[in-house]
């Protein structure tokens, strides 16, 4: 661990290449992978203790991680070439490092969520907090310790902010921790519920990272979208809605006035939509500023200062010349961070996905902007 | 099949013993058990084609049956002694027949739902209909054909009533089919959405059976309860709410005026609560009858004529002498049907669960009432 730590501590200055803000390490066998990281009592409580393997196939016998169980991806959801030795994609940190870093010329990858995207849908806050905590130990031991190019977002459960703060304090000092992964929940992010988490994030210089949960309109306690889609393709495109609503909530509640140093990274949520939202908020603010008197700047200023978007899934305008225009509209030189979404089916190779972007802007998206967001923690 | 069919056709008259209205056959490996009963195209669409076994552990790679994934039963959810040869409970029709029929002196058991309780939560109506249809073929071939004491409720998907009617017409004439299992959905049962299903049910003399879905407040498109429980014990007791709401909806919409011969069997939904609902409806009806002018009798008359309740989980009044009073309040001599809920953890043995009930009433609950409901189809 010491060697890894040293490399990492000296790493920030030496990173000259691409920083990937969205990499997913997977469990081999769901929650059971976390057994070594929780007490026997908790294993029993989650239904993953003992050897009743038949039970894992039955509902009400063991918890499952809330994910996108009712929308399936007919393309397979994962890169087929990420299947290694017959194991599921991104379950082997050595193979994944070789494929992602060596294969695509990426310097550093931030691990986010594993399959914890949806724990905000657990109705029992203690279950969610225990799973998050076990995941953090698993991620540090099974992934961060294995290759010095990995970094990690520590996971917290959104249901009980007091427990989340304790978890941040427990894990934030470990080598390779760059940020906080805050799973989506059915309370929008501007609400006071989350302020203890934001306070801790600001105190420890940890950006908050959010990511589609896969539970949107699947589970009752998950974030909702406007209406229930039928097909995966329909649902997958609508996933951006919760990020739009959370962004509006954060700005309008004045979260970035209260926590001016808080950074909020929207992973895999799209970004082109942010242009219209900035324009609309700024326009409305002229007439409706009295409703949100705690704002001291125009709304888009907060987004440009405190919010970042990751690139994947990269936009593909019908007319290629529109790409740079959209990037300008969303202030990509300040707000955009490269991400690959390894090992998912719609993985973005930086060379292909970012083709056609000017060299200076590319340097910002791939390196300078992430360096500014994660700072010394890289 | 012919021998079985003959035994069954002559069976109705010869049944003198206990009829069990709630028995659950289980899959060994979830949806994959249904592969032989659907096209390859549908297997691929559901993510259960091919051999990518790792994929079954990942969300978005294969559909799962919507069930109670976020509330787990620390008692194990199943009778431990129903585990046979290391296989999950109620996956072997021969062993299950021996344990349920021979072991508990039960004459006939109606198979309901398997693990299809929650298919009303699927956002894609075609997925739900395909799963229901494959289940019906599986149930007939793997269970009804194996032991002449099994009967079956044919499953339909509630999302698309036109498809449900076609499925009723396809399956209703098969040997051993006694009824229709209608999975719960987020549209209450009095609504016109369901009338084509009720019309077919009445036409073919098939009672509608309903059962808790396990998805209540778990999945977004599932029936909701009032507020979100945290613990299984809390959630399990609140499950009756959707049955209460459906019953109110059926009565107030006048469904039993429109379909006077329709029988509606509430399985595992409790029954003591029905007394207060009958009293309250009848009382309100005196002042509010103008709002529901299509009702020609007082509300409780419809419940006594068209609605039946299964016994399990049997009530256990603190004072034993209250048992017979409650049974009288709910007109148990007309409305109650014995059920065991085999192979679940809270299985009711008829000798133990019904102890203390008068012999005449027992005969009605265990035999005469079910004979009247399922009629010649038994």
Automatic annotation (TrEMBL), chains A, B:
One of its GO terms (molecular function) is carboxy-lyase activity. GO terms for cellular component: cytoplasm. Residues 123-375 form the Amidohydrolase-related domain. This is Putative TIM-barrel fold metal-dependent hydrolase. Pfam families: Amidohydro_2 (PF04909). The keyword Lyase applies. It comes from Ornithinimicrobium humiphilum. GO terms for biological process: secondary metabolic process. PANTHER family: 2-AMINO-3-CARBOXYLMUCONATE-6-SEMIALDEHYDE DECARBOXYLASE (PTHR21240), ISO-OROTATE DECARBOXYLASE (EUROFUNG) (PTHR21240:SF28). Keywords: Hydrolase, Lyase. It comes from the Bacteria.
């Amino acid at each position: 661990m010491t060697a890894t730590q040293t490399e990492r501590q000296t790493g920030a200055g030496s990173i000259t290449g691409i920083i990937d803000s969205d990499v997913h390490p997977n469990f081999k066998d769901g929650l059971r992978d976390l057994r070594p990281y929780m007490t026997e009592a908790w294993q029993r409580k989650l239904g993953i203790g003992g050897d009743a393997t038949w039970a894992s196939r039955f509902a009400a016998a063991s918890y499952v991680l809330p994910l996108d169980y009712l929308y399936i991806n007919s393309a397979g959801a994962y890169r087929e070439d990420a299947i290694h030795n017959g194991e599921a994609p991104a379950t082997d940190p050595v193979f994944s490092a070789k494929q992602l870093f060596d294969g695509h010329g990426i310097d550093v990858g931030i691990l986010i969520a594993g399959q914890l995207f949806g724990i905000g849908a657990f109705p029992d806050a203690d279950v969610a907090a225990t799973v998050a905590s076990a995941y953090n130990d698993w991620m540090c031991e099974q992934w961060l310790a294995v290759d010095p190019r990995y970094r990690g977002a520590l996971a917290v459960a959104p249901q009980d902010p007091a427990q989340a703060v304790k978890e941040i304090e427990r894990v934030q000092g470990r080598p390779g921790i760059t940020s906080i992964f805050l799973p989506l929940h059915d309370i929008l992010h501007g609400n006071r519920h989350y302020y203890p988490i934001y306070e801790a994030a600001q105190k420890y210089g940890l950006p908050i990272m959010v990511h589609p949960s896969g539970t949107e309109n699947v589970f009752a306690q998950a974030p909702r979208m406007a209406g229930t889609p039928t097909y995966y393709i329909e649902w997958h495109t609508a996933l951006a809605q919760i990020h739009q609503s959370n962004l509006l909530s954060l700005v309008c509640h004045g979260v970035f006035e209260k926590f001016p140093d808080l950074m909020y990274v929207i992973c895999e949520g799209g970004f082109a939509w942010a242009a219209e939202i900035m324009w609309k908020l700024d326009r409305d603010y002229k007439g409706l500023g009295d409703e949100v008197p705690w704002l001291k700047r125009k709304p888009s200023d907060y987004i440009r200062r405190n919010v970042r978007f990751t690139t994947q899934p990269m936009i593909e305008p019908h007319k290629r010349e529109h790409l740079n225009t959209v990037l300008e509209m969303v202030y990509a030189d300040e707000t955009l961070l490269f991400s690959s979404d390894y090992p998912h089916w719609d993985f973005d190779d930086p060379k292909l996905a970012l083709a056609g972007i000017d060299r200076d802007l590319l340097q910002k998206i791939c390196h300078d902007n992430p360096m500014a967001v994660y700072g010394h923690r890289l």
